[in-house]
Amino acid sequence: MREVLIPGVNSKKKQMCFDWGPGEMLVCETSFNKKEESETKPGCPFIYIIRKDIDVYSQILRKLFNESHGIFVGLQRIEEELTGKSRKAQLVRVSKNYRSVIRACMEEMHQVAIAAKDPAIGRQFSSQVSILSAMELIWNLCEILFIEVAPAGALLLHLLDWVRLHVCEVDSLLADVLGSENPSKHDSFWKLVTILVLQGRLDEARQMLSKEADASPSSAGMCRILGDLMRTMPVLSPGNTQTLTELELKWQHWHEECERHLQDSTFASSPHLESLCKIMLGDEAALLEQKELLNNWYHFLVTRLLYSHPTVKPIDLHLYAQSSLDLFLGGESSPEPLDNILLAAFEFDIHQVIKECSIALSNWWFVAHLTDLLDHCKLLQSHNLYFGSNMREFLLLEYASGLFAHHSLWQLGVDYFDYCPELGRVSLELHIERIPLSTEQKALKVLRICEQRQMTEQVRSICKILAMNAVRNNRLGSALSWSIRAKDAAFATLVSDRFLKDYCERGSFSDLDLIDNLGPAMMLSDRLTFLGKYREFHRFYGEKRLTDAASLLLSLMTSQIAPRSFWVILLIDALPLLEEKEVVFSAEQTYELMRCLEDFASRRPVWREPGVQRIQEDVENTKLEMLRLALARNLGRAIIKEGSLEGS
Amino acid sequence: MFVARHIPADHKDLIHDVSFDFHGRRMATCSSDQSVKVWDKSESGDWHCTASWKTHSGSVWRVTWAHPEFGQVLASCSFDRTAAVWEEIVGESNDKLRGQSHWVKRTTLVDSRTSVTDVKFAPKHMGLMLATCSADGIVRIYEAPDVMNLSQWSLQHEISCKLSCSCISWNPSSSRAHSPMIAVGSDDSSPNAMAKVQIFEYNENTRKYAKAETLMTVTDPVHDIAFAPNLGRSFHILAIATKDVRIFTLKPVRKELTSSGGPTKFEIHIVAQFDNHNSQVWRVSWNITGTVLASSGDDGCVRLWKANYMDNWKCTGILKGNGSPVNGNSQQGNSNPSLGSNIPNLQNSLNGSSSGRKHS
Question: Which pTM was predicted?
């Protein structure tokens, strides 16, 4: 359970009102008890905005999220191809990829920590590095036990690698000592040799001993003997064809030989060498003396196994693990969360590992990706039949939801939702609607994502929001194109009406490009069709394609798609055509026009503003009279033209 | 993990409600100083007050945003017995430069005889509709048939609850399987121990809202109520703020063929009850996926409740004040490492083992 302290709020005296936002929470001090009218109190409370910020250290973690996203998607995609023997190898490879991404992130963050000028920031980055390191430690162990599923023999080798990778600064110490003039006289010489032995790096330990032998002839003999013991310790090497039983047998003999040397006090005169021999015999007391060098109980565990039960079976691990933990802590301290997680892993209790990690780590990144990978290994099902796959989805949904709070990482979240078969789609629908559409680019990106997934309702809604916003800001062209994309006929009608109203008022259209290039989208609504066709009429007239213009104008009037309020304009638009030198309207067309005119005149729309009405009516009446005259004249001319030779 | 920043609210009296808009880029606050303020978030993440105006002649209890499909629209309700609808007008370019915007009143809803205690917009698929509830025990549902003309609202339904109402919640589910549904809570403290939560459902045949359920087990005054967003569940989840936090599930029972005209019957189960707030719980609210419930109570804290994948509800977070005074306007806040560990010892376990290592 996480506790967040909000500075400035006095929880003893006041309560809080709040609201959820897509990525933040609003909180404000208030007092709920009084519902009646209150006297004015002096007070200037603050509004608090609480954000679950998944990306405080931007650049570096972003890389982690981005790269792990790539691995995740890749894993989902190759799922069908993962078959047979190569399946395990491929899954191990995926696991190693994840781990290398973590390590790369650690390395970068470490560099930043060192370079930080402000020590507080440096400390924060360092603690991040520690957490990443813990995550990699856990992941690595899970890889060995659950994905690699190392059998007895190989198991120990993997665990040795694991320990070597995560514990102690052996290499730099090695370099230090070797680089000095007299390595064996170096202060840390014996410390180094001990560490090497603890980590099972016996070849290097032997080399160190030979230096000691060279430098100090009195102990040369002992060094040689111990060196020989080191050289002859039986180990299972990869590719070795001996069976486990053979190995055990050889090891037993070797162990007895070491024991004999100890009994014979071969190394009695060198406490260092004797201690090393005891370690190699797996003597617990000797090992525990090296607590400081071992640093933690799992190092102790692996060293102990190496020198007492090298052929340990996976199912027996947990016994040694528990006792190692107990021995190492020695009752002085209690296990910490990391210890419990590792113990759960040694017990092969995957569910417990995930549960403990979920509690200990406050970000879902780790558990989501690890659980997904384990699910691909078909491990969750056999362990947890009831909610196996649901747990994977639960964690992925949590992680992806968190990504949506970020202004650019949300795009990664989309893919995670895609691979959640139960609730992924509906979760994506809910989240994607809330993304603020601050730029056209972002809006288009969001729409593309929705369209690819046939989220038609979200497309409609987002386009509607954009169209509405455009209308409010009087950007009619933008409003129209969003309405078209939303396939929102009603809104397209509304915007078209606005265009037409604008034209009535100003005598010209805005956004001509858009209207001229509507194409089949014109069919979305009658009003839109009218708008498009009316513009076409204008174009015809501009290009002097007068007969086309005339026919179009007439069809606009007769097809009934023209709004009532526009009829006057259409009729008056006929005037210039009627006044052309040549006869544009045929006789029949002229009759039609006359009928439309009378039709209109008998059903004139009522003007709303009484003052303006008179003047408007007068102007209109004049124009209509002119039209009647022009029509009559045109009729005459048309009849003559059609009656004479060229007309028929 | 959590970054908290604060901005001075500048209200002259107690703030009663805060509300994010749909995208989380604007917010509104309302106060006993009778005004509403609107705040906008800039690209850089800073909040600025872009409008502040007197909305009522009494304390303003709640303020809420309509869905952005309807434009920039707010509703407020007040002790002055009215609720009002406001629309933002795109102003002169001068105003834009100064970062100010104008809100005009589109309508005043005056039907209530008493303080209007809550106002909520209906889910967007129902059109532009809102519900108010009052201390006179009546829930009123209004609709604006023309979305482009917000001055025309008509009172479509009056639902009598017989008890003084304190809160309402629309069921956000837009599934065709569910009729419109509204839950009403009452904080009536009169001695008749009537159940304080009623659920009304719209009937397509009668074209009226009829009572579908009463939660008999809730007998203490209810201060807030909230349906959870539905991710495709066949049942509904309702959270209630009363003397404790309660979460109920309502499973629709299959309608018998004979009573197809009546409201749906529900199987009601209580799935969680928490009294951690020690006394009264005043507000409950769901996150956008309905996976986390937040509540605030007399203990001065906001608590977060979440169900794990086994459907067990637990408290997963607390927001509380530490009481120390804060100065001025700080848009920066405290921050914790983001991949952070809840338990610092996780880091300590590794000290000395890997910091500063070279990796091969």
Answer: 0.86
